[in-house]
Specification:
globular, mainly beta, about 0% helix, single chain, about 100 residues
Length: about 100
């Protein structure tokens, strides 16, 4: 799937919803619980089931990224399953430290 900045992705297996903040040039496969996520106007595959354990999901307001691909996603609706790109789980992005004040 070719991603665009501002595009919303929805999970077929739980309530997860993500917004694309930074998109790679190449086509990627974004999955949640092992099932492909869908863009606006797309219908999820019938009978989609989650793979793996629930409880490792994404958190509201957190960003998830893959620096090698140049991909960053913002969670706007949390869910129970992990999000992966091309089969690799996405890591939660950490906050940048503030400069020390003297």
């Amino acid at each position: 799937m070719k991603l665009k900045v501002g595009q919303t992705l929805s999970s077929a297996v739980d309530a997860t919803s993500l917004v694309v903040v930074r998109a790679p040039e190449d086509d990627v496969t974004v999955t949640c619980g092992g099932a492909p996520m869908t863009g606006p106007g797309e219908t999820p595959a019938a009978g989609a089931t989650a793979e793996g354990e629930a409880g490792n999901g994404v958190l509201m307001g957190k960003r998830y990224s893959d620096e090698a691909l140049g991909l960053e996603l913002l969670c706007v609706k949390p869910g129970d399953y992990a999000v992966a790109v091309n089969g690799t789980p996405l890591a939660q992005k950490t906050a940048q430290p503030l400069p020390a004040s003297d």
